[in-house]
Design a protein that fits this description.
Layout lengths: L2 H7 L3 E5 L1 H13 L6 E5 L1 H6 L2 H10 L4 E4 L2 H9 L5 E4 L8 H6 L3 E4 L2 H8 L7 E6 L14 H8 L4 E7 L10 H23 L5 E5 L1 H6 L7 E4 L24 E13 L4 E2 L5 E2 L4 E6 L17 E4 L2 E6 L7 E4 L11 E5 L7 H7 L4 H6 L7 E3 L5
Parallel strand pairs: 1-18, 2-3, 2-9, 3-4, 4-5, 5-6, 6-7, 7-8, 8-9
Antiparallel strand pairs: 1-10, 10-13, 10-17, 11-12, 13-16, 14-15, 15-16
The protein binds pyridoxal-5'-phosphate.
Length: about 375
C-alpha cells in the first residue's frame, strides 16, 4: 500500500491491527496447551471485528492450520483469500448450500441427528466432511452425549465423512462451585462419549474448550482448543474468571480524527437532545466516529473517555451516527486532524472497560465494529 492509499484509509476513523501482539498472544496460549492440543483459530464475525482476511493469513503464515467460522460464507471467504488448512463451520448450513461445503473443502458441523438424517436422503457430488456437535449443556445445538446410537448413526451417514466430535461449555469462565461442578460433569460426559466411540473403532478429532475452557480446564488433553477472544488479546469481561493468567496484548486499536474545535459558554448544550449542558466555559472537539461505526450509542452518560496525546477526554452528549463530541478543556496542544484512541491498550480505554460500561462482553463490542472502518495493519518500526 502506498502512502496515498493509507491516507485515504485513515481519513476519518479506522481499526489498527497489531500483528506483533497477535504473535505474542499465540505464543502465550501455546505455553499452556497440552502436547497434543492444537489451536483452532476462531475467526468468525470478521475475526471479532479484526478483519478475517488479515488475521487468518497472518495466522497461516505462523503455522496455524485450523480455523473456525460461523457461516458457510465466511468459510468460502477464507478459501478465496488463500487459506489452505481445515475450516470448520461452527453453525448450521442450510441444506441447499451444503454443496459449497464440498466445493470449497470446508467442514460442516452436524447440529443434531435430525440434520444428519435429512442430509442422508439427499444427493451430493462427494462426501461432506463433518464434525458432530455434542450438546454439553448449552442446549443450543448438538446431540446428547448419552445418545450414542444416534451419534453412531451420524458416523454411518453415507453422505458424511465424520472427522471430528466437539462440545461447547456454557459456564467455563466461572469459578462458582456450582458452575465448576456442572462443567466437570459435562466434561466427563463428553469424554465418556469420545471413549465409547473410539472403542467402537471410529477415528476422529475431539475438542471442547474455547478460550476460558482452556484457561480454566487446560488439563484436558484434546485435539484442539477453539480459541477466539484471548487470541485477540483481551478478556471477555471484568467478571470472567481465569485460573491461568496469560500476558495478553490487545490486537485492536480504534482511532478517529478530531475534525473541529470550538469554545462553548456556560449553559450551552452539546448534541442531540441537549443532554449535555456546560456548567462553565468549555472547549470541545468533534471526532469523526459514531454508532454507525459500531461505537455503542448507549455509551452516552457512562463516563467514557478517549485518549488524546497522553491525556483522556470525556465523551460528552449523545453519540451521533457518524460523530461524537469530547471535552478537551484541560488538554493542551490538540489540533484538528489529530487522532484520538477510542479503544486501546490502557485500562481506561480498554475494550473490557468499554464493554463493562454498557453491560456487555468484549466479544459483542468488537464483533459489531462496522464495515465502514478500514482495518489497517500497524507498522512496527522496531
Ligand atoms: C465463538 C466460539 C468459540 C470461541 O469462543 P471464545 O470464548 O471467543 O474463545 C469456540 N467455540 C464455539 C462453538 C464458538 O461458537
Amino acid at each position: 500500500m502506498d502512502e496515498k492509499e493509507i491516507d485515504l484509509l485513515r481519513d476519518r476513523a479506522f481499526v489498527e491491527i497489531d500483528l506483533e501482539n497477535l504473535d505474542n498472544n499465540i505464543e502465550e496460549i501455546e505455553k499452556i496447551l497440552q502436547p497434543k492440543t492444537k489451536i483452532m483459530a476462531v475467526v468468525k464475525a470478521n475475526a471479532y471485528g479484526h478483519d478475517i482476511s488479515i488475521i487468518s493469513k497472518h495466522l497461516q503464515d505462523k503455522g496455524i492450520l485450523d480455523f473456525a467460522v460461523a457461516t458457510v460464507e465466511e468459510g468460502i471467504k477464507l478459501r478465496k483469500n488463500g487459506i489452505k488448512g481445515n475450516i470448520l463451520i461452527l453453525g448450521y448450513t442450510d441444506f441447499k448450500n451444503l454443496h459449497y461445503v464440498i466445493e470449497y473443502d470446508l467442514i460442516q458441523t452436524i447440529v443434531d441427528y435430525n440434520y444428519s438424517k435429512i442430509i442422508e436422503n439427499m444427493t451430493f457430488n462427494g462426501k461432506i466432511k463433518a464434525h458432530i456437535k455434542i450438546n454439553t449443556g448449552m442446549n443450543r445445538i448438538g446431540e446428547k452425549p448419552e445418545n450414542i446410537d444416534k451419534i453412531i448413526a451420524i458416523f454411518e451417514n453415507k453422505n458424511l465423512d465424520v472427522i471430528g466430535v466437539f462440545g461447547h461449555l456454557s459456564a467455563c469462565d466461572s469459578n462458582s462451585e456450582d458452575d465448576v461442578e456442572y462443567t466437570r460433569k459435562k466434561i466427563a460426559l463428553f469424554q465418556n462419549c469420545v471413549a465409547v466411540l473410539k472403542s467402537k473403532g471410529y477415528d476422529f478429532k475431539a475438542h471442547l474448550q474455547s478460550s476460558y475452557g482452556l484457561l480454566n480446564y487446560n488439563e484436558l488433553n484434546l485435539d484442539y482448543a477453539r480459541i477466539g477472544i484471548i487470541m485477540y488479546g483481551i478478556d471477555n469481561s471484568k467478571d470472567s474468571y481465569s485460573k491461568i493468567k496469560l500476558n495478553l496484548k490487545p490486537v485492536l486499536t480504534l482511532k478517529a480524527r478530531i475534525t473541529s474545535i470550538r469554545e462553548i459558554a456556560k449553559n450551552d448544550s452539546v448534541g442531540y437532545g441537549r443532554v449535555y449542558i456546560a456548567k462553565e466555559k468549555r472547549i470541545i472537539a468533534s471526532v469523526s466516529i459514531g454508532y454507525a461505526d459500531g461505537l455503542p450509542r448507549n455509551l452516552q452518560g457512562k463516563g467514557a473517555f478517549v485518549k488524546i496525546n497522553d491525556d483522556y477526554a470525556p465523551i460528552i452528549g449523545r453519540i451521533c451516527m457518524d460523530q461524537i463530541m469530547i471535552d478537551i478543556t484541560d488538554i493542551k496542544n490538540v489540533k484538528v486532524g489529530d487522532f484520538v484512541v477510542l479503544i486501546g491498550e490502557e485500562e481506561k480505554i480498554s475494550a473490557v472497560a468499554m464493554a463493562f460500561k454498557i453491560d456487555t462482553i468484549t466479544n459483542e463490542l468488537l464483533s459489531r465494529l462496522g464495515d465502514r472502518l478500514p482495518r489497517i495493519i500497524k507498522q512496527n518500526n522496531n
